[in-house]
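[Automated response] Your request has been received and processed.

Submitted sequence:
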Amino acid sequence: MITGNNAKKHFVNVILIVILVVFIFLPKIVTVSYYLHLIVMSLIWFILISGLNVIQGYTGYVSMCQIAFYGIGAYTSGLLMKNLHWGLGQGILAAVGMGLIVGTIIGFPSLRTKGHYFSIVTLAFTMLMFTILRGWSGLTGGIVGFAVRPVSESLFGIPLNTRQGYYYLVLIFAVLTILFVKRMTGSRTGRAIIAVRENENLASSIGVNVFAMKLLAFDISAVLGCIAGALYMHYVNFVSPAGFAAEYAMNTLLAGMVGGVGTLVGPAIGSFIVIFLPEMLRAAALYRQLAFGIVLIIIVFALPHGVVRPLTKLWTWALAKIFRKNNVEEATLASNK
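Generated structure:
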């Protein structure tokens, strides 16, 4: 008979499998195409915010350049498809490589600063990247941007140039992202990164290469941001600087804060809220952005640790209730025997 902690683990695994099955059949459940579009965008943003979560939530450095990596990934993959006729897979791999290169180049000087100085440096990089995308019209198309052909690949026989097919592709990347982050945080390297967040001097005193851990976390953040950007570009088949302006850096921070940084599911919750909430407030017409800001402010002040914290407490309480009741029943049966 399975009891105690093993029973809880099995129960949690069953719940996770059920959630995954729901996501697999979601295109059959969601019949409105626009809602499926919002879900695809939420999953892409989950990958983007998971990258931010690595540097901000697990390392303790508030980065303002995640949206810049998003744009770099989109433009890298888009330009290679437009000019060299590269495919989807090649474009995503190129975005990964560009993320590593740019993340390392930007990380070396910026990670030598701390606190709000680091945030200012990364914000400056975002503004510089936006200026380059707008000004280098010969390469990037300037403020107008450029379009690319739809992807021709298929996944399990489903064409990726359909919304349903692309949903499954993004879902696979989202699942791989959460598995990677979970494995990383549970590894020795992940524990070293978290130690840097808690106390850099103490981490250094026990043999942790503090700068190397910070740079690794920043590179992971950049790579995940570039992957999200490449997925976004191949989804909409168009890219322009407008979607990667510095103002959108605040949206990435809000998604992390609202969901809960330093957690696995916080980026998912925050991403869905940031993507879906403006659409739910569309009835407010001209006051939509104002209402969106007010709701987010209320959430941040009421739940400073994110939505995931009370949900975790509720989940823990529910599990305790369920298994306490089972343990009492088992004890009663054993005493009767």
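Summary generated for your ticket: The longest strand covers residues 146-147. DSSP finds 15 helices and four strands in the chain.
If you did not submit this request, please reply to this message.
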